[in-house]
Design goal:
heterodimer, A: about 160 residues, mainly beta, five-stranded antiparallel beta sheet, B: about 250 residues, alpha+beta, globular
Chain lengths: ~160, ~250
């Protein structure tokens, strides 16, 4: 049996559940518009309808598509910062911009991590789960930066 | 018969599906977990672990259980080429092994009381024995590291242990034994196999190793692994898919 394959976990409507992490008060999220689209007419932080990519009716606070960069969160080991990409109102990608350990961005592993992002999260309630392995996310630099980026786009 | 209690600073769920098992079986199992906590807790100043750590108790004078755990830690330190360690930065902390070992003891107590179909889940580590219903495997979700109420995968477990170590775990960090720094470049590693101690220790070691950690699991006969990285991409060992309910994958 040989090597691992991959995919992704990201996504989703469930992101609405993410929240409650402390966001450092002094750090301000920086929004950046996607290169292939005109920039939004308004600051995405403002509570306004997102520039809709499709004509179908969407909630007024539907997240705007684009990339959003979380603040840099300092830790005693170094800075942590993430950037998210939102597409079709869903979290489509997460990039790690800064991590204390350079291994986080090592190119070596790209051979067995596919670059294609695929929605793979499962609603625990609907999947008849008997028990869960893993613990809840605590407030950490990674979560803070990610959460700030999500809040910036009303996903959090 | 399902119950969740806070023991060892974490929620512990025991779910027994055999009709004839007395409720006292659960009480016995929880009592044993409390005894393990009293002896091995790094948070109780009077625990044997803390007394050894402070130099007040020599390991050779400690209880047989404690000496057994220290021997197991040494065994796994060698087996993982140093990536699992009970001593990091001079401090004694065998918690990475004790949780799995405590679950194993709870399983043995339930078995003695006649249980054959049950799960014991302590702080996210799961030992699943037998079936959840007629011929049905236990459905063990691997928690999504950032999306509340979501799971990343569903493992179908019959006589399997599922252990997850994460940088998102409550109660602190897994440290890289080489540097003493927290492991940060992997969000979580799940290891699935027959033995809960083996799975638990290797999940901790693979997390400490970072990105290449799954290679350790790939080389471990009878065990499979699944890792989630901070960019929310996942990778897994070659036999992992076969253990999962792939029909439950959303959006596939």
């Amino acid at each position: 049996m040989k090597r691992a394959i991959t995919a992704v976990v990201a996504t989703v409507a469930g992101v609405l559940w993410l929240v409650t992490f402390r966001v450092t008060p002094h750090a301000r999220p920086v929004a950046s518009a996607p290169a292939n689209q005109p920039p939004p007419a308004q600051d995405p932080v403002a509570d306004a309808p997102a520039p809709a990519a499709t004509p179908r009716p969407t909630p007024a606070n539907r997240p705007a598509d684009g990339t959003f960069t979380g603040p840099t969160i300092p830790t005693r080991y170094g800075d942590v910062q993430v950037r998210i990409a939102v597409s079709g109102g869903r979290l489509a990608d997460v990039s790690v911009l800064r991590m204390p350990d350079d291994r986080a961005r090592s190119a070596e592993i790209t051979q067995y991590v596919t670059p294609v992002l695929r929605s793979e999260a499962i609603q625990a309630q609907s999947a008849r789960i008997d028990v869960i392995s893993g613990a809840t996310l605590t407030s950490e630099a990674y979560a803070e930066s990610l959460d700030a980026a999500l809040r910036q786009d009303h996903l959090g | 018969m399902r119950e969740t209690r806070d023991v060892m600073g974490m929620p512990v769920t025991i779910d027994v599906r055999d009709p004839g098992v007395p409720p006292a079986a659960l009480a016995d199992a929880y009592a044993d977990l409390r005894r393990v906590d009293e002896r091995f807790s790094t948070y109780r100043p009077d625990s044997e672990v803390c007394r050894i750590d402070r130099g007040e108790l020599r390991p050779e004078d400690a209880s047989p259980d404690l000496r057994l755990v220290l021997d197991l830690c040494e065994h796994y330190r060698r087996a993982t080429r140093g990536w699992f360690a009970a001593r990091i930065g001079g401090r004694l902390d065998p918690s990475g092994l004790v949780k799995g070992w405590a679950i194993d003891r709870a399983c043995a107590i339930l078995e003695r009381r006649g249980a054959r179909n049950y799960v014991v889940c302590a702080g996210g580590d799961v030992a699943a024995r037998g079936h959840s219903g007629a011929g049905e495997p236990w459905r063990v979700g691997i928690r999504h590291p950032v999306e509340r109420g979501m799971v990343a995968r569903i493992v179908l477990a019959t006589d399997l242990a599922v252990a997850t170590s994460g940088t998102y775990e409550k109660g602190g960090h897994v440290l890289d034994p080489g540097t003493g720094r927290p492991a940060v470049d992997v969000l979580s590693v799940t290891v699935v196999g027959s033995d809960i101690v083996e799975a638990d220790v290797h999940a901790t070691a693979a997390l400490a190793m970072g990105r290449p950690g799954l290679e350790l699991i790939e080389d471990l006969d009878g065990y499979e692994g699944y890792a989630i990285f901070p960019d929310l991409r996942a990778t897994w060992t070659s036999g992992f898919d076969a253990l999962c309910d792939l029909t439950a994958v959303a959006g596939a």
